[in-house]
Amino acid sequence: EKKYVLLTGNYVPNDEESEIIRAKIKDAIEAWPYPAVVYDFCWRAILLNSKNISMLQISDNDRQIIYKTKPCALEIVFDPSFWPNKYLKGNELEKWHKNLFRFVLHFKNLHRSINRDPWYQSVIMRMMKNKLFSSIWIKTEDHKLHPLTTRFGEKILINPKDTSKRLNFNIFVVPLAEDPRFELEYFSPADKETLEYFKV
């Protein structure tokens, strides 16, 4: 009950609490045969399983930097060097931008009651320097969130073994029973090619 009170009161998890969650959930997400990520309710990346690290070609050093700095998911997906932003073209890029639109819309609606908190203001101020983010942010002003899309969706990533090919996933998010201020995002292959990639 204490953890739900902390969530209701918008108490951002500190470094010690994040480390405790990493230790408790690590084995569980390593057992998942596909990528998985743990975020806190600020959408900061807390833990990535080895499938995700391998797929994104993240070095051990970069992983430690992620765990130390805990970047917001917005900062990751809008980074110009993030693979979908770098490699997708034409209709694929258009679909990706639609996903980014929903992503920003979810973030705004989920945090609308705490948009004056320092961590929120800090993230948005940093993100507004990103032209793609700022343009999508403006487009979301007159839209409302679909009630079901915050817990599932689709993701397209680049196949690190062949950048001309794509990995397509369905994703779903569940809160951690241990502390609902943290959520686990599971990836599941959305087509045969993506399934085969993880059998290798």
Tell me what the structure shows.
The structure is a single chain. With 200 residues, this protein is α+β, with helices and mostly antiparallel strands. The protein has 10 helices and 5 strands; from the N terminus they run ααββαααααααβββα. It has helices spanning 2-8, 15-30, 50-55, 60-69, 73-77, 83-87, 90-110, 118-127, 131-139, 192-197; strands spanning 36-40, 45-48, 152-158, 166-175, 182-189. A 5-stranded antiparallel sheet has the order 2-1-5-4-3. Strand 1 (36-40) and strand 2 (45-48) form a beta hairpin. Helix 7 packs across helix 9. The longest helix has 21 residues, at 90-110. The mean pLDDT is 85.
What's this, in brief?
48% of the residues lie in helices and 17% in strands. The protein has helices spanning 2-8, 15-30, 50-55, 60-69, 73-77, 83-87, 90-110, 118-127, 131-139, 192-197; strands at residues 36-40, 45-48, 152-158, 166-175, 182-189.
Write the layout of secondary structure elements.
Blueprint: H1 2-8, H2 15-30, E1 36-40, E2 45-48, H3 50-55, H4 60-69, H5 73-77, H6 83-87, H7 90-110, H8 118-127, H9 131-139, E3 152-158, E4 166-175, E5 182-189, H10 192-197
Antiparallel strand pairs: 1-2, 1-5, 3-4, 4-5
Q: Tell me, rounded to a whole number, the average pLDDT.
A: 85
Report the end-to-end length measured between terminal Cα atoms.
43 Å
Q: Tell me how many strands there are.
A: 5
Question: From the helix content, strand content and strand pairing, which structural class follows?
Answer: alpha+beta
So what's the overall shape?
globular
Strand content: 15-25%
- Poorly predicted tracts of residues: none
What spatial order of strands do you see in the largest sheet? 2-1-5-4-3
Calculate Rg over CA atoms.
Answer: 17 Å
Name the helix and strand elements from N-terminus to C-terminus, one letter apiece. Answer: HHEEHHHHHHHEEEH
| Helical residue percent band | 40-55%
Question: How many individual helices?
Answer: 10
Largest sheet: 5 strands, antiparallel
